[in-house]
Amino acid sequence: MPAATKNFAFLCGPDDFIVNRLGAERFAALAAEANADDFSREIISGFAANVDEVGAAVNRFRDAVQTVPMFGGKRVVWFKDVNFLADTVTGRAEGTLAQVEALQELLEKVNADEVAIVITAAPIDRRRSFPKWCEGQADFTLAGSDGESAGEALAGVALEEARTSGATFGEGALELLLAKVGPNTRLLTEETRKLATYAGEAAVIEPAFVDELTPNFAEGDFFESAEKFFAGDLRGTIAALERHFFNGGDARPVLSALQNRNRILIQVRVLLDTGELRAPGPYGFDKAAWARAAENHAKHFGGDAAKSAYQLFTQNQWYVGKLASAGRLPPLRRLIDNQLEFIAAFEEIIRRPNDQATVLREMAVRCLT
User: Fold this and answer.
1) Is pLDDT at 48 greater than 80 in this prediction?
2) Which CATH number among 1.10.8.60, 1.10.510.10, 1.10.357.10, 1.10.260.40 corresponds to the domain 150-213?
3) In this model, does residue 147 exceed pLDDT 50?
């Protein structure tokens, strides 16, 4: 059956932001195609916290689909934020399954010439019969899954937002942005829009812009402590630790951030000392040298390409170059001593769980003086 004759559009995936964004675009396109005025468009919330709310949502949707337009023409209905198709207590309930069957019967009888329907659902359990039925009967879109990794989906969101804003990402900028923001599509969109505005007429988002303007949301407020520590700023490190613990923070994520950064710098220091890498320039390490080093040492990492502080070559090359820039990279002996201090601090907070702030402050003093 041609896609144009299908009764409804069904967009789904694991991330509600990505799915709803696609749904909004489809809803707007269908409304424009049908020349639907405000009285002919309707958005129905499909969000339900229990079985009763599922029934209420399906009934509202049924009323919207079956309502005759006041001034004639075609109606456009968006059943948005449907969450009862997931593998949850509500999604598995008998009452919900009965409502889903009723929803399927309604969709089977819809006249596509009279009403255009968009359904957005996230997350969903694709093992159920209804999603499988939608794959064959609907204009079906699966966003951010099956062949598209979470990273690819997030990259797609950022690239699309940059394109909409009239900007592009410079080399390494997108990877750095994803590393700093983490898997938060809403935040990623806002940060991309901000960076595109900052890029101005050049319209190219450079890695330096990301580094300067985007906080490290992925690592949280303990990132500041790591930044100050590896800049050799004792006063700044202690101030960052005080803010962290004043806000109820725990020592372990701070130590984790410090250890992860130190592991990366140990690997960089060794490669610099052996001559496999040269000191990084403004655009990071030499790409050819980086690629050769990655190939030479791949066997030591077992072919694992997942991002990890244990594997230097899974990191953003530009950002690693920034971390290792002149004046910021200690000698190998100091880095190894740092790692031993981090281990000792971890053991100490196990013994003194109520003195975590003091333990880290003492550690910083020993390392930076």
Assistant:
1) yes
2) 1.10.8.60
3) no
